[in-house]
Sequence to fold (125 residues):
Amino acid sequence: MPRLPDQVLATDAAIALIATLHGKHGDLMFHQSGGCCDGSSPMCYARGEFLVGDEDVLMGTLGDTPFYISRPQFEYWKHTQLILDVVPGHGGMFSLEGPEGLRFLIRSRVFTDEEIAQLRAANRI
Fold:
């Protein structure tokens, strides 16, 4: 059976920032915000500072850092591979990268028909 496509990936810049933040804050986690205060930003927290609920979906891990998204947001994006990246600027006010002068953002691509079939067969979407 072919390897399932990753539902979330990170660029080298994002991986480097995750390593920096891990050195300062310990184990981390991400939650893809669905609106409100910080728009639709990926939010980085020290693991345990954000309570994951029954309606949150684990999209995958970036190294050993879990990446969650709310179920309603997942329903919109389930046919899309999320790519965590970094750009200069200030992110969400609650996200750990703010003081670094950088912010996480999501880039994306739509899965191919074959990838969607694989994810469906594995009950991932």
Observations:
- The first strand starts at residue 8 and ends at 10.
- The helical segments are 12-25, 71-77, 113-121.
- The CA atoms of residues 97 and 103 lie 6 Å apart.
- Residues 8-121 form a domain with the Hypothetical Protein Aq_1857; Chain: A; fold (CATH 2.60.300).
